[in-house]
Amino acid sequence: MHGIARGGKNLYGFAIGILMLHTRFPRIPGEMGNATTWDFPVLYKVVKGASPHRVVREGDPALLEPFIEAARELEREGVRAITTNCGFLAMFQKEMAAAVNVPVFTSTLMMVPMVYRMLRPDQKVGIITVNAKTLGERHLEGAGAAGVPVAIAGLDTEEEFSHVLLDDQLELDVDKARAEHVRVAKRLLAEHPEVGAIVLECTNMPPY
After folding, report:
1. Is the entire prediction scored with pTM above 0.90?
2. Using CA atoms, how far apart are residues 72 and 79, in angstroms rounded to an integer?
3. Which residues of the chain have pLDDT under 70?
4. Structure confidence by residue, pLDDT tens digits, 148-199
5. Distance between CA 109 and CA 143 in Å, rounded?
6. Distance between CA atoms of residues 47 and 62, nearest Å
7. Sequence-distant (≥ 6) Cβ neighbours of residue 191 within 8 angstroms
8. CB under 8 Å, gap of 24 or more: what pairs does 176-183 form?
9. I need a labelling partner for 136 at 20 to 30 A (CA). Which of 86, 110, 159, 202 fits?
10. What are phi and psi of 154, to 5 degrees?
């Protein structure tokens, strides 16, 4: 390096900041909360008290302010963009984007309108989620996907993956979780043959 180096921060080299739920369940390589997933540095910030139960099952609006404050902390620490590790945080997209001066993308559900535009007019976007019971219009609206034809299937019908994540368990049967993902995807396509593409709501799903 040559020239003048300028300071003002404590940490450097993190372009992407990731807001994390407050959890202890296993995070295997390939999912967002495992740092080996990335081939570039990311800066994590855990939002204390933001349990999977409060975010996914309850949709607790009291968590908005802690997420906004955590996003502002990441911005002060120098990240150039902020994302989160839970697709259900789409419910806070508008408020969080307004609270900071860097781009915020809270949820993979924000890809749903883009994916829909790639499909034939008679097709739908399939969404596989950690919990179909509570994924609803406010999440789709927050992601800019209100009115998009979708078909939703949840792993909450299965025994392992959703239970471990939402109840924050310490052990995960990876093979069983993988089989559940395949089974739910096949069921989604069998029940909705009009699905032309699938978006994974949950950032824990890519390894499967």
Report:
1. yes
2. 10
3. 1
4. 999 999 999 999 999 999 999 999 999 999 999 999 999 999 999 999 999 9
5. 6
6. 12
7. 151, 153
8. 177/208, 178/208, 180/155, 181/128, 181/155, 181/205, 181/208, 182/208, 183/158
9. 159
10. -120, 145
